[in-house]
Amino acid sequence: MFKREKIKVTLQYELLLLPALIGFVIFFLYPSIQSIFYSFTNYSVNKLDYSFVGLRNYVNVFKDEHVIASIKNTVYFAVCSTLLQNVLAIPLAVALNAKLKTKFLLRMVYFMPWCFSGLIIGFLWSFILSSSDDGLLNHLIHQLGIGFLPNNWLGDPSLAMKSVIFVAVWQTTGWAMIIYLANLQSIPAELYESVKIDGAGKFQAFWHITFKFLAPAMTINVLLSTIGGFKVYDQILALTNGGPGYATESITFSIMNYGFSENKYAYASALSVVMLVVILLISLVQLRFFSKREDNIA
Amino acid sequence: MNRKTAAAMSGILALSLVLAACGKSDNGNTAAGNNAANTNANSESASNEPKEKVPVTMVVQYNPNLFADLEKSFEAKNPDIDLQLVFMDNAQANKVLNSQFAAGEGPDIAPMNVDFFKNGYAYKLNDQPFIDRLSDGAKLATTQADGSIFSVPFETWFQGIMYNKKIFADNGIEIPKTWDEFLAVSAKLKAAGIKPLGVGDKDGDVIGKMALGVVLSTGAIIEPDVEAGKKTYSASWKTGLDKFYEAVKQGIIGTDAFGMSVDDMVNEFLNGKSAMISMGSWQVADMHKKAPDFDFNIFPYPSAAEGQEQWAIGGVAGGGGVNAHSKHIDEALRVLDYIASPEGDAQWIAVTHGGPVIKGTAGGLDPSLSGLQDTLGAGRTYSPWEGFKKINGENFVRNWFKTSQEIVAGRKTVDQGLKVIDDYVAEQLKDLQ
């Protein structure tokens, strides 16, 4: 009788999982398996009756100079944006966790950019960073008499990706800050009191308590911003359209171009699988590293 | 009836009401006509009600509001159709439409390309009556190697170098005919503190097309030979491109162009901040609207060397075909039939300032484009990517635009850039085998 009741309860819970599971299978698992399947074929607009080509697409992916460039760009973007986002979000969260009268207003202001689509933010910043005479930032720079500063923000190939990273960090730091803020509020105040009694200064309290106890939020933030960084597309599309040349093209950009512009479905599928594997590996390594850090707190 | 049974019954009742309502909304238009049990009175009252208009969506790459007259005239003649024009940015149209068509969706009428046709997304138009109304040139350009026609052009488009007439007059500048003269004019304007050439090359198309305008003067219409494997771009475009990119060495064209959009470039020109821009017929309507008193004209791209003929970049691209999975194919064909008539074509080019593609269409060139009259009259207008019959020209030119940006940025030499283009074409042709 007891066992039947237990099965019934378990079934009820599993029934609740069913809608999500169906969505997961239809919108992720099935397309992913299809992509893996097509990546071993020569399926394209010119070969609708495809045949199997083994690992040829994977070999070609690593010979394609544009794909290599897009992988390098993506790694650069993901690493820099993740680092900057977290380095800025922690002090911001600490500051806005203090007893400020305007803290709720400031939290909203910093979080606001994240509420908009990356495309809108990208277009907005492309007006600000435009190298034309009407570009807002350049106009300001010239008005301030500091026109010697580099001002071809989106057009100089060595500066364009840095500008894209700046915009991405500007948009997403508020979101990371909110997660750190939530974590900060769960740190017991007694811990700060005890280190104060031990004679620790503010920096030592931050280093030994705050930074250490922010580990769970850091795991989430670093993981999600790295994955987001690897999938970056919309901000680049609006800011530079992947240019100049291939200077800011990301892996997703290459997948879109090969898949939806050139209709090389199998090749784009191979590229997607490579991206999936890279993200999976990096996520696993990160999870392992940060989980150990969390265990140390416990 | 216990509470559980009552709840189940009411649930079933609610579900059946929802399903009935869905069914009614889906079949509402046809149910009255098909149901034999309907009384005469009901049929009469149904026929007196105004029929619901069939919506036909059509992608345009201009401001849709500019076509209000065309829409009005069409709907006056076709009161059962609601023509809905939707703007789509040219740079993204290919990707957006491809994903929409692949999902069995998308607009009823849209710009089509050879890949869409191969995928079965574009409806074959060979048997449509309006095909015979196309001018010979337009028909030739839109007919594929296997004789298929899946897209109808609505206009010819063309572009050259637009110039500010006042700046030219104030500085005593003659219209340049060769690229050396163009560079000399630019240097003179620069010395006078005027930005000679405004370039908004964020998407790569402005410099890329300008370069091809100069290349054409070297007699480089080679696409049929390239597809036949008889010629390469490395051999044919080298002289023209070497000449063109001298503008980079002289600081007339630079990487600052990549940080500017076409809109930025046009606005600068209209505000008198630059003396020239490389632009075409499709921008003229908006330019007149933004600055009605601004006085400008256009000249063909200067030739690479003296004695060569000057060309304009242009073609019959644009227009549209019918989505093969559209629910309103007949209605969409009626829209094309109207636009591809002398009346519709005249209304279309009155907005776009392009040239006619339908036999018997009335209309002349906008005065601010008169500088291209002789060039167009002599038929010296061409766009290499439209010359392909086997490979997808749009993808070819997208690669060229990217490569051109890399040459301007100094990341590739002209020779390296041309090799990239040749390799791309070779790969596309190999894929067709």
From TrEMBL, chain A:
Keyword Transcription annotated: no
Gene Ontology cellular component annotations, sorted alphabetically: plasma membrane
Gene3D superfamilies reported for this sequence: MetI-like
PROSITE patterns: ABC_TM1
SUPFAM superfamilies linked to this entry: MalF N-terminal region-like, MetI-like
Transmembrane stretches, start-end: 12-33, 75-96, 108-128, 163-184, 205-224, 265-285
Database matches in Pfam families: BPD_transp_1
Keywords: Cell membrane, Membrane, Transmembrane, Transmembrane helix, Transport
Any Gene Ontology biological process: transmembrane transport
Topology of the protein relative to the lipid bilayer: Multi-pass membrane protein
Cell compartments where the protein resides: Cell membrane
Domain ABC transmembrane type-1 span(s) in chain numbering: 71-286
Family indicated by similarity: Belongs to the binding-protein-dependent transport system permease family.
Protein name: ABC transporter permease subunit
UniProtKB/TrEMBL annotation, chain B:
Annotated region described as Disordered, given as residue ranges: 33-53
Keyword Cell membrane: no
Leader sequence segment: 1-20
Domain of life: Bacteria
Composition bias, Low complexity: 33-48
PROSITE patterns the record matches: PROKAR_LIPOPROTEIN
Descriptive protein name: Extracellular solute-binding protein
Species whose genome carries this gene: Paenibacillus sacheonensis
